[in-house]
Amino acid sequence: MKNTKQVTEKALDNKCPSCGAPIKFNPTVGKWKCEYCDSEFSLEEMQKYNNASNDKNNENSSESDVEEIDTTEYVSYKCQNCGAEIVADEHTAATFCVYCGNTAILKNKLSGEFKPNLIIPFKTDKSQAIKSFENISKGRPFVPKGFNHKENIEKIKGIYIPFWLYDVGVSGDVEYDAKKVTSWSRGNTHYTKTDIYKIFRAGSMKFSKIPVDGSTRFDNNIMNSIEPFNYDELIKYNHAYLSGFFAEKYDVDSDEAFKDAQTRALESGKEVMVDDSIGYSGKLVTNNTLSTTIDSKYYVLLPVWMVNVKYKDKMYIFAMNGQTGEFIGDIPLDKNKAILWGILMFIGMTLLVILISILVFYS
After folding, report:
1. 126, 51 Cβ separation under 8 angstroms
2. Sign of the CA dihedral 83, 10, 244, 27?
3. 113, 105 Cβ separation under 8 angstroms
């Protein structure tokens, strides 16, 4: 049995200023919209009330209001709406109450070093994510039966994923061998001449907002595949944007995450310098002294729609960029369907050959 530690602080939520019902952020209108009285509010309007959006609840304190009883894997909170217990693991920063459905924003998970600098709010809603999930299997005859069942579709959830963004400077030099090939003909003889040059390039360059997934719970390949995000739409973080969505806090610190950003920056810097020489082929780098510096770093939350579908003891993960709508994922193959299709094709082709042979023989 797993222990828990009791949290004295209640989970934050957002209430409609007009009717007091739970209110969520609506990506399609870019405001907080009440599903009960249909009222809409901007962030400035929401901040006037005592909820997750106001300045007091968004102060960046390095101290947590958590009273630890045991060192454990799970934490319990009290729902602000109905008082029920909400249990979350150590990485969850926003979730829902299973009893009343109210958003539960776990402020102590988003304080101090875990307070995000910036956020990109969701721009797409769940209906768009569902449509993309349904469309991904269209035109694919071997998709398993029931893959798009309602129970799978309803699992789609919006999650704010923690990311580190780095502004990186790259400087140094690159030395490489390159070929220049010329060909000509005289009479019936064809000639080819290959000249080999040693090329040297030196310089510096800047890369802005290189993203690195800050959570080990999400596949880096999937997160990389739904890039890019439009970072021009990054805004100052506020707890209120989490209302209606799940959220995670990072468990990969900035120093560890920078290793991936550094690798990407160095590789891109090398490519820029090598590509700078035009008219050559067969370029081979022989010396590389490029190094990096961190000019700025940001801890941000980025919007992603996700669904996990289990098929034959394997989990298939699908993700959609909650800002741009870019959607990726693997489709499982129903081998029985594929085999049946192959048999039917073989029978069909055999019958066609027999029919053609009969027509030719009796014509």
Report:
1. no
2. positive
3. no
User: Which DSSP category does 12 fall into?
Assistant: B
Is the omega angle on the peptide bond into residue 228 within 30 degrees of 0, that is, cis? yes
Closest CA to 173 of 262, 291, 284: 291
Residue 95's Cβ-count burial label (10 Å; 0-12, 13-18, 19+) is buried
Q: Is the dihedral of CA 127, 29, 117, 114 positive or negative?
A: negative
Q: What is the pLDDT of residues 271-327, one digit of tens each?
A: 999 998 888 888 999 999 999 999 999 999 999 998 877 767 777 778 899 999 888
Strands laid side by side in the 74-78 sheet? 4-6, 74-78, 85-89
How far apart (Å, rounded) are the C-alpha atoms in residues 164 and 300? 6
Task: Tell me the whole-structure pTM to 2 decimals.
Answer: 0.75
- Give the number of other Cβ atoms within 10 Å of residue 91's Cβ: 15
Q: Which residue has the tokens 């042979």?
A: 357
The one-character DSSP state at 227 is P
For 354, the token pair is: 């027999």
Residue type, 50: N
Cα 305 from Cα 291, distance rounded (Å): 36
Q: Residues 245, 301: contact at Cβ < 8 Å?
A: no
Residue 221: count of CB within 10 angstroms of its CB: 10
**Whether 257 contacts 214, CB under 8 Å:** yes
